[in-house]
């Protein structure tokens, strides 16, 4: 990283959206972590017991107006201070992020281009973990047991992911494969039908991106009909964010389950378990999901950030 030998042609990269993004390399140009001699608090990246991590998060959209960029980290400041502003919030999210990054001896910065989007970058300094620590063994064993439990339920099953965007499809495949499921990627619903029609292949579940499903309702309806005709046991799932999932076509929603992204192996496991009937001898899927979540969170430390004291009390009780 000292030589900045990284890919910086953001406008031509194969991003999740396929749209150009703000030049991410400019979001860390002034970072002292790349120039340890000029920093009074950032440790040298050459220290064998330290790890310097840099993370960039980029989006596409309206971007941040140039005149508002100098104050984005100021507490309770909004780009649009009017009561009729498009987006809500109190204006403390980025201020809190800056404080947390400072506590981790890191830096944070951004670059934003109006009508293109923004790229935020932060660094953090970590100590190398000790693999032989006896204190970490119980937690590692617990996490390993949880992972094995999740994967054993679906071990040997086959899934089909319908998504024309290769980067996003690979992300979905990775999370599904963590459950022990074999995954095949196809670009559209027609290819999906061809794959399911193969008599030498058993497909247990099909995951379709919501935008693909909404593109042509007639093809989607035909897909459901053909899917039931070929194999009525195959389960159909739509992958969508919280906004798109609310626009689901209610006329056919009884034939599929909507899974909200971002995908996480634990939540994906719970969704599949409910849709596929739960454990044998346990008809109460809601109870099973609650127990799975409780086991997943047992012993974890959770940080809750909220400016409303009542919300903090409620969250602590839950």
TrEMBL record:
Keywords: Endoplasmic reticulum, Phosphoprotein
Domain Response regulatory: from-to ranges: 158-276
Domain of life the protein comes from: Eukaryota
Membrane topology of the entry: Multi-pass membrane protein
Keyword Endoplasmic reticulum listed: yes
Enzyme Commission number: 2.7.13.3
Compartments (UniProt record): Endoplasmic reticulum membrane
Residue ranges occupied by any Histidine kinase domain in the UniProt entry: 53-128
One family name in Pfam for this protein: Receiver_CRE1
Entry annotated with the keyword tRNA processing: no
EC main group: transferase
InterPro entries the UniProt entry points to: 2C_system_His_kinase, CheY-like_superfamily, HATPase_C_sf, HATPase_dom, His_kinase_dom, Receiver_AHK4/CRE1_1st, Sig_transdc_His_kin-like_C, Sig_transdc_resp-reg_receiver
PROSITE patterns: HIS_KIN, RESPONSE_REGULATORY
Main location: endoplasmic reticulum
Reactions catalysed, as given in the entry: ATP + protein L-histidine = ADP + protein N-phospho-L-histidine
Entries under PANTHER family matching the protein: HISTIDINE KINASE 3, TWO-COMPONENT HISTIDINE KINASE
Protein name: histidine kinase
Organism: Salix suchowensis
């Amino acid at each position: 990283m000292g030589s900045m030998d990284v890919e910086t042609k953001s406008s031509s990269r194969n991003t999740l959206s396929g749209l150009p993004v703000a030049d991410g390399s400019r979001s860390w140009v002034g970072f002292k972590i790349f120039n340890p001699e000029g920093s009074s608090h950032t440790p040298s990246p050459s220290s064998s017991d330290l790890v310097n991590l840099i993370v960039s998060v980029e989006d596409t959209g309206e971007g941040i107006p140039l005149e508002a960029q100098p104050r984005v980290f100021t507490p309770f400041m909004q780009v649009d201070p009017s009561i009729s502003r498009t987006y809500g919030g109190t204006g403390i999210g980025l201020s809190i992020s800056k404080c947390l990054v400072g506590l981790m001896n890191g830096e944070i910065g951004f670059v934003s281009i109006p009508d293109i989007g923004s790229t935020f970058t932060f660094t953090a300094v970590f100590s190398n973990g000790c693999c032989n620590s006896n204190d970490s063994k119980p937690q590692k064993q617990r996490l390993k047991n949880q992972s094995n439990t999740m994967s054993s339920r679906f071990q040997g099953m086959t899934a089909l992911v319908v998504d024309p965007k290769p980067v996003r499809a690979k992300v979905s495949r990775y999370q599904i494969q963590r459950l022990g499921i074999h995954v095949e990627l196809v670009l559209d619903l027609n290819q999906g039908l061809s794959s399911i029609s193969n008599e030498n292949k058993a497909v247990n579940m099909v995951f379709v991106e919501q935008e693909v499903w909404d593109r042509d309702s007639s093809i989607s309806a035909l897909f459901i009909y053909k899917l039931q005709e070929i194999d009525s046991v195959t389960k159909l799932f739509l992958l969508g964010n919280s906004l798109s999932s609310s626009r689901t076509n209610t006329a056919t929603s009884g034939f599929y389950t909507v899974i909200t992204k971002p995908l996480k192996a634990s939540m994906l496991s719970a969704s599949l378990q409910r849709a596929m009937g739960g454990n044998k001898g346990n008809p109460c899927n809601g109870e099973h999901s609650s127990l799975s979540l409780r086991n997943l969170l047992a012993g974890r430390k959770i940080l809750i950030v909220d400016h409303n004291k009542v919300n903090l009390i409620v969250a602590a009780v839950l």
